[in-house]
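Task: sequence design from structure.
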């Protein structure tokens, strides 16, 4: 059985010792105590030496002195316990007596009583629990592996005896230790290792006490002693040392300076423990009657239910006391009750207190928990102390007032929810106090011991101006912001929400999702797994220690100008990861500047994994973070917008936009170069070129109708009325898209035959055209009014027709300016006019019912629109200057007409050639930055096809219908329908 707790030896107290102790000897070893090394046959000291033998002789009890070897290098010095100089004693009477005394001592030790509880047989004594003084024995070969601990139980003059009927062997690194020594440190203690056969001490052992063997004692390696010695080796045969004894063998250098030959005495030749001194008889002290310093009063309106202690509070009556435990419960009686404590220390342990009149403490101490105080009850501290000794978690919602102090003790958590106003400060000695800026006194000091934690759980933003001291932890929870206006050296743990400071903090940790911001110093390690934002837009955080940013961490740097931006200054090292976010303040443009925002005197390692904020992913800006051995710098570069253009028009718009901060910021936000052509097109006013396109298309349509032979009859006037609808599509290029348009118009006119073959006439045309401006969502409307004259001449088959027209035009438009990150809507309105003149000549060639009329002619149009400024798009509004366009085109074609009674179907085809096909410029500006864009060139050659049917209703009336299509030109006419009637009066 393995013994873990051994019973110490019962003191053998003889009656003679108790009442009349006989003379005895406290020297167990007798004259053998003068020897450090005593052998029977040989003493051998090996090892490199020197191995000092101190305060003890070296000698052999029977064999010749020449059997002592190893001296030198071993040396003997000091004085024996009898006061004689120590040395190597020649074999003779003195050594023989010492050998005989050793046998006497060993036999006396073996003869001491052995009780079963102290039987160590078959046990490894290095695995036992601490051993109290006593006699221990083993009838088997005994081993020690590890430490044997001897517990003196704070007593002087104690002894440990180990009787081994066989051998004792210790393993390498085994030790002997004494704990809980008496007042003299063990000076008069005894320790005896008594083996019937051999003792073998392993390598690197720490030894203590008197090692006595019937045969040999072997020290097989390096041997250490506890303290400075207190050890002897006394053997019936040989004593050998195979290794060095670094501290030497000193018989009197043990703990307390003892030689560990005490604790026992001979009485009649028998060894017994030395009895402790008899304590003096002290007469009993009769305490004086108690003097109470104060009292406790439950108001007369209350009720009290006593607890097990027997304390009874009589309502309205003082209970005198200095220190009191209230284990009962107080409640309201006839009215709300109160509890008053005057100049006393009261501990409340009852958990059923429900009185609502409040607690008043006058010059006293109240110790309670949130469970023993009335729920939400008020407490007034008048030069007093309230201690929450909280072993478990709880919440207190009452209001604590007065000039007293609140202490938090115990490992549990106390949560304050009341609006407390006490002014004596707060102490967190242990556990956790959860509060907020709404529940802690506004500027009250808080002392937190290292084992305590103060938590600011902010449900709403708040500021705390009290001094926080003591070195305990400050923790921030809750989603709202917390601002600390005073300096503290306490460590800070920001777990949620925002923590702002203006002076200093201790070592700080920022959890994922939380933010630390402000100006000041962080004394110690700053660990950022959330967001660190130096300054109050902007500012500096100085870290007196190291800075570590994790993969979820973000460093937020704000830049207001070239000299005003956030800094993180670190005296130690900076280990970087996570995100760098850069925010620009006040519209400042940092492009072309560099900002060294982080310095670390101890060196920078790692890099930020990502860059966010400002224009970190812009195609037109270069934002780079560079790392030096002790710093990090961000550099902003601006690329010209024109470099992303695919056309000269886009380049012109981009160059102008570069001078406008708002437009620059919008284009700088484009993440990819592919977005630039479309964005520049969206900003360009080139879409307004459709106004001149429509003007030329309407002029062509009007001329096609009027430059035909009239039907005027001598002596009569011809009048015609016509309705027209056309559908077409404007042309597109890389700068502007194609738009469908619809044009509705009317024509009223008349002709008069002034002489045979010659007619003159006048007309009025009006119309409305709606279309886009070549971009998605754009729209424009053109309203026109035209006045004109015409003339016709006929001579046989030959004919000539001419026209002149002047048009008044009103323009309105809306165009979305939309590209990634920007959406605006610009509106515009202006007016303009145009001149159109044309002439056509041809010949009618008749063959039966068919007439073929080849013709040719010229058409000239000059158009203009007034200057205007767009509205509604803010900085994206463009001012468009005066516009003008000119067209000169010829036409060659033929018409075929068949007369079938009342019906005259006809077809017409013409080739139109543009002589003036250059593009025109549209001058514009963004604010005071001028630029121009060029329109696309007019298509030089196009074809115009017409099919129609005239119905002769009589000699004075004609109904006609035509449909046209044009293959190209400024616009492509998909279809144009014309329906009219001509009447002769």
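Answer:
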């Amino acid at each position: 059985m393995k013994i873990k707790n051994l019973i110490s030896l019962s003191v053998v107290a003889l009656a003679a010792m108790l009442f009349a102790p006989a003379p005895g000897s406290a020297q167990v070893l007798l004259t053998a105590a003068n020897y450090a090394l005593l052998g029977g046959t040989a003493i051998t000291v090996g090892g490199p030496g020197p191995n000092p033998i101190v305060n003890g002789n070296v000698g052999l009890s029977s064999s010749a002195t020449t059997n002592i070897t190893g001296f030198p290098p071993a040396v003997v010095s000091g004085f024996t316990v009898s006061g004689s100089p120590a040395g190597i004693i020649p074999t003779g009477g003195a050594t023989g007596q010492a050998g005989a005394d050793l046998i006497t001592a060993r036999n006396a030790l073996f003869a001491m009583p052995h009780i079963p509880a102290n039987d160590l047989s078959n046990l490894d004594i290095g695995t036992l629990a601490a051993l109290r003084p006593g006699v221990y024995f083993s009838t088997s070969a005994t081993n020690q592996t590890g430490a044997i601990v001897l517990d003196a139980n704070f007593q002087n003059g104690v002894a440990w005896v180990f009787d081994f009927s066989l051998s004792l062997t210790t393993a390498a690194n085994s030790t002997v230790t004494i704990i809980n020594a008496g007042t003299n440190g063990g000076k008069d203690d005894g320790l005896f290792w008594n083996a019937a056969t051999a003792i073998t001490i392993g390598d690197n052992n720490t030894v203590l006490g008197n090692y006595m063997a019937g045969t040999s004692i072997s020290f097989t390696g390096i041997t250490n002693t506890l303290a400075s010695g207190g050890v002897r080796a006394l053997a019936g045969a040989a004593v050998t040392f195979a290794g060095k004894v670094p501290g030497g063998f000193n018989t009197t250098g043990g703990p307390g300076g003892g030689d560990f030959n005490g604790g026992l005495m001979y009485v009649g030749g028998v060894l017994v423990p030395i009895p402790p001194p008899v304590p003096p008889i002290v007469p009993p002290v009769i305490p004086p009657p108690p003097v109470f310093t104060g009292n406790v009063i439950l108001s007369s309106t209350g009720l009290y239910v006593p607890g097990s202690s027997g304390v009874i509070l009589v309502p309205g009556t003082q209970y005198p006391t200095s220190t009191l435990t209230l284990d009962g419960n107080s409640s309201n009686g006839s009215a709300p009750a109160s509890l008053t404590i005057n100049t006393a220390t009261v501990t409340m342990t009852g958990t059923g207190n429900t009185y609502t009149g409040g607690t008043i403490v006058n010059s006293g101490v109240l110790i309670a928990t949130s469970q023993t105080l009335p729920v939400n009850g008020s407490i007034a501290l008048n030069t007093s102390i309230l201690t929450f000794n909280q072993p478990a978690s709880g919440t207190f919602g009452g209001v604590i007032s007065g000039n007293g102090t609140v202490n938090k003790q115990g490992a549990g958590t106390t949560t304050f929810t009341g609006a407390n106003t006490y002014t004596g400060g707060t102490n967190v000695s242990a556990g956790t106090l959860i509060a907020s800026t709404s529940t802690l006194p506004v500027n009250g000091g808080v002392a937190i011991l290292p084992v305590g934690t103060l938590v600011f759980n902010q449900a709403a933003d708040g500021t705390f101006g009290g001094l926080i001291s003591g070195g305990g932890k400050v923790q921030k929870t809750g989603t709202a912001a917390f601002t600390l206006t005073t300096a503290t050296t306490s460590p800070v743990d920001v777990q949620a929400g925002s923590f702002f400071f203006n002076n200093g903090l201790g070592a700080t940790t920022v959890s994922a999702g939380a933010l630390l911001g402000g100006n000041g110093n962080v004394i110690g390690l700053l660990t950022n797994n959330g967001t660190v934002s130096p300054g109050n837009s902007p500012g500096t955080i100085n870290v007196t220690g190291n800075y570590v940013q994790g993969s979820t961490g973000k460093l937020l740097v704000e830049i207001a100008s070239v000299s005003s931006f956030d800094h993180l200054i670190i005296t130690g090292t900076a280990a970087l990861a996570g995100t760098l976010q850069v925010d620009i303040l006040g519209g400042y443009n940092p492009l072309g500047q560099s900002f060294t925002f982080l310095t670390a005197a101890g060196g920078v390692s790692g890099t930020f994994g990502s860059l966010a904020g400002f224009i970190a992913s812009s195609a037109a800006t270069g934002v780079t973070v560079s790392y030096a051995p002790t710093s990090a710098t961000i550099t902003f570069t601006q690329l010209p917008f024109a470099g992303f253009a695919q056309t000269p028009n886009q380049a012109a718009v981009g160059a102008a936009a570069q001078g406008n901060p708002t437009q620059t910021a919008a284009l700088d936000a484009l993440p990819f170069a592919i977005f630039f052509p479309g964005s520049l097109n969206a900003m360009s006013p080139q879409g307004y070129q459709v106004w001149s396109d429509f003007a030329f298309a309407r002029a062509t349509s009007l001329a096609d109708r009027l430059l035909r032979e009239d039907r005027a009859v001598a002596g009569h006037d011809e009048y015609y009325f016509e309705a027209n609808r056309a559908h077409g599509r404007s042309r597109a290029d890389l700068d502007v898209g194609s738009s469908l348009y619809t044009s509705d118009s009317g024509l009223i006119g008349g002709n008069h035959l002034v002489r045979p073959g010659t007619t003159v006439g006048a007309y009025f045309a009006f119309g409305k055209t709606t279309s886009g401006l070549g971009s998605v969502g754009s729209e424009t409307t053109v309203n026109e009014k035209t006045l004109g004259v015409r003339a016709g001449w006929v001579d046989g088959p030959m004919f000539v027709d001419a026209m002149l027209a002047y048009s008044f035009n009103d323009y309105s438009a809306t165009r979305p300016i939309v590209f990634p990150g920007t959406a605006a809507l610009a509106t515009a309105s202006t007016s303009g006019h145009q001149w159109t003149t044309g002439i056509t000549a041809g010949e009618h060639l008749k063959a039966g019912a068919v007439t073929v009329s080849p013709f040719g002619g010229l058409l000239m149009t000059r158009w203009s629109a007034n200057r205007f400024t767009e509205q509604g798009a803010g900085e994206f509004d463009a001012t468009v200057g005066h516009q003008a366009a000119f067209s000169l085109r010829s036409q060659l074609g033929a018409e075929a007409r068949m007369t079938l009674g009342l019906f005259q179907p006809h077809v017409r085809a013409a080739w139109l050639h543009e002589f003036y096909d250059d593009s025109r410029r549209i001058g514009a500006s963004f604010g005071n930055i001028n630029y121009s864009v060029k329109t696309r060139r007019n298509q030089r050659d196009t074809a115009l096809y017409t099919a129609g049917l005239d119905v002769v209703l009589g000699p004075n009336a004609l109904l006609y219908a035509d449909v046209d299509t044009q293959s190209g030109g400024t616009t492509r006419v998909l279809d144009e329908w014309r329906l009219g009637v001509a009447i002769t009066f």
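The longest strand covers residues 798-819.
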